[in-house]
Amino acid sequence: MRSFTYTAPTSVADAVAAIASAGPQARFFAGGTTLFDLMKLGVERPSALVDVSRLGELEVIDTSGDDHLVFGASARMADVAADPVVLRDYPVLAESLWRAASQQLRNMATVAGNLLQRTRCPYFRDELYPCNKRRPGSGCAARDGIDRGSAVLGTGDACSAAFAGDWPVALLALDAVVDVVGPRGERTVTLADLHVEPGDTPDREHSLAPDELIVRIRVPVTPAGRGSTYLKIRDRESYAFALASAAVAVTLTGGGVVEECRIALGGVATRPWRAYAAERAVTGRPLSAETARAAGEAALAGARPGNLNAFKIELGERTVAEALRIAVERAGR
Amino acid sequence: MTAFEVNGRKVDLEVDPRESLLAVLQDRLHLYGTKKGCDHGQCGACTVHLDGRRVVSCLTLASQVEGREVRTIEGVAGEDGTLHPLQRAFIDNDAMQCGYCTPGQIMSGLACIAEGHTGDDDEIREYMSGNLCRCGAYVGIVAAIRQVAGPAEA
């Protein structure tokens, strides 16, 4: 492992100053569950780590507000998953957290760090293979390799690695935003604008500058939270990444018609993927098996499979349809 | 220097920023009960408690434990060697074969019980899924945790 310096500043201002003075290869470090892992593999090679995992001001969880749920950047995934308001009113958020990783990792990983989790494409994690994301211009080993886990939506010629996270998919469905602090001040970035498709630069995965720090996540309060679910389909029942997942949140009119519908997909796309066409396919109608299936088909309409992952298209469609059924049932309670 | 507590004992070490907590426990403090399996946070063999919460020590930087309390499998039994009820339950229920994953299973199981994630056996399985056992002693592991946690909720 490349040697690096380690500092643990005690305020956000000090952390931002520390990253600025540590140079372009410095990285913020929080739970370590992605970054330390990839450093051991030689995939990440930072010259300096600025530890933001113990900034008390970033650990606040406030779900009491009328406008937003507020999750401090360094709040742990396990703690947000156990928040009583999240559990009761936003099952899509709770399920996206407790169905991710293991309790040990959720005790370590922060809710902001999880937004920037890197892909689990096996070729990205292995120095022996070319990878345009790890080493721009070197090629893509998955193209002629084992691409069973790769994305079918948002793919490009350079890269089709799937986005691995769950919580960011749920946040995207609920129109969350992140507040970011950097040397140029504070700004707010929507979840929709945070992640980017690979295009010609798959090494660039998000729209933040290296010296910008996420300080909190805000989720607009919505009645659609109660009628929501995060359905995650994987090779084993627990402790595995999604092959396909769907975050769905709905409200119903008194007559059982879907009034509002949000759908986002995980496991099948190169970034957290909002499925607007699928939302339109069910909005203004009562949910039936037919409309649920039509929404699933609309969600995957633009899919481009590789060699071994065409199964993700039908799996994704069915995951959306089943998640809609669960969400509508919950909304009707 | 990095100062922290391990099983109630104060330690103060010069650590390399690259060292994991797991490496420091084994190589510097000679506490070999905590096991290295995958070294990438995928198997749970290196599970310890950090300020009372279970974490994987392989992905914890040693530098990050400054001022904190670490509990390992060596800190579970009584000082006179009396086994903790969960250790006894692992024996009673044949919850191991080769035993390599067992320290991690017990540290994780203690936390699972303390967190209250033992409502039914499915909940135990879900909250113990971060600890792999390649001998396949899962049935015994769930039974051992159930024995200590008490009967499942109706």
TrEMBL record, chain A:
<dbReference type="InterPro" id="IPR005107">
    <property type="entry name" value="CO_DH_flav_C"/>
</dbReference>
<dbReference type="GO" id="GO:0016491">
    <property type="term" value="F:oxidoreductase activity"/>
</dbReference>
<dbReference type="InterPro" id="IPR016167">
    <property type="entry name" value="FAD-bd_PCMH_sub1"/>
</dbReference>
<dbReference type="InterPro" id="IPR036683">
    <property type="entry name" value="CO_DH_flav_C_dom_sf"/>
</dbReference>
<keyword id="KW-0560">Oxidoreductase</keyword>
<feature type="domain" description="FAD-binding PCMH-type">
    <location>
        <begin position="1"/>
        <end position="224"/>
    </location>
</feature>
<dbReference type="GO" id="GO:0071949">
    <property type="term" value="F:FAD binding"/>
</dbReference>
<dbReference type="InterPro" id="IPR051312">
    <property type="entry name" value="Diverse_Substr_Oxidored"/>
</dbReference>
<dbReference type="InterPro" id="IPR016166">
    <property type="entry name" value="FAD-bd_PCMH"/>
</dbReference>
<dbReference type="InterPro" id="IPR016169">
    <property type="entry name" value="FAD-bd_PCMH_sub2"/>
</dbReference>
<dbReference type="Pfam" id="PF00941">
    <property type="entry name" value="FAD_binding_5"/>
</dbReference>
<dbReference type="Pfam" id="PF03450">
    <property type="entry name" value="CO_deh_flav_C"/>
</dbReference>
<dbReference type="InterPro" id="IPR002346">
    <property type="entry name" value="Mopterin_DH_FAD-bd"/>
</dbReference>
<dbReference type="InterPro" id="IPR036318">
    <property type="entry name" value="FAD-bd_PCMH-like_sf"/>
</dbReference>
<protein>
    <recommendedName>
        <fullName>FAD-binding PCMH-type domain-containing protein</fullName>
    </recommendedName>
</protein>
From TrEMBL, chain B:
<keyword id="KW-0560">Oxidoreductase</keyword>
<protein>
    <submittedName>
        <fullName>(2Fe-2S)-binding protein</fullName>
    </submittedName>
</protein>
<keyword id="KW-0479">Metal-binding</keyword>
<dbReference type="GO" id="GO:0051537">
    <property type="term" value="F:2 iron, 2 sulfur cluster binding"/>
</dbReference>
<dbReference type="InterPro" id="IPR036010">
    <property type="entry name" value="2Fe-2S_ferredoxin-like_sf"/>
</dbReference>
<dbReference type="InterPro" id="IPR002888">
    <property type="entry name" value="2Fe-2S-bd"/>
</dbReference>
<dbReference type="GO" id="GO:0046872">
    <property type="term" value="F:metal ion binding"/>
</dbReference>
<dbReference type="InterPro" id="IPR006058">
    <property type="entry name" value="2Fe2S_fd_BS"/>
</dbReference>
<dbReference type="Pfam" id="PF00111">
    <property type="entry name" value="Fer2"/>
</dbReference>
<feature type="domain" description="2Fe-2S ferredoxin-type">
    <location>
        <begin position="1"/>
        <end position="76"/>
    </location>
</feature>
<keyword id="KW-0411">Iron-sulfur</keyword>
<dbReference type="InterPro" id="IPR001041">
    <property type="entry name" value="2Fe-2S_ferredoxin-type"/>
</dbReference>
<dbReference type="GO" id="GO:0016903">
    <property type="term" value="F:oxidoreductase activity, acting on the aldehyde or oxo group of donors"/>
</dbReference>
<dbReference type="Pfam" id="PF01799">
    <property type="entry name" value="Fer2_2"/>
</dbReference>
<dbReference type="InterPro" id="IPR052914">
    <property type="entry name" value="Aldehyde_Oxdr_Iron-Sulfur"/>
</dbReference>
<keyword id="KW-0408">Iron</keyword>
<dbReference type="InterPro" id="IPR012675">
    <property type="entry name" value="Beta-grasp_dom_sf"/>
</dbReference>
<dbReference type="InterPro" id="IPR036884">
    <property type="entry name" value="2Fe-2S-bd_dom_sf"/>
</dbReference>
<comment type="pathway">
    <text>Alkaloid degradation; nicotine degradation.</text>
</comment>
<keyword id="KW-0001">2Fe-2S</keyword>
